[in-house]
User: Fold this.
Amino acid sequence: MLVAGTTFVVSIAAFYSYQVVRELILDNLKKNALLEMQRGADNIDQWLASKKIG
Assistant:
């Protein structure tokens, strides 16, 4: 019974640890994707501005 209880507790802890790490990674990926899109938009805006002047 002790082994089963320990296994259950460790399994639950591992599951929640996985969920926390997964959420952190997904949040980081979302932030990086947004930043990359903003940089791309800035590059396009700069390119368009240079074409209007030239």
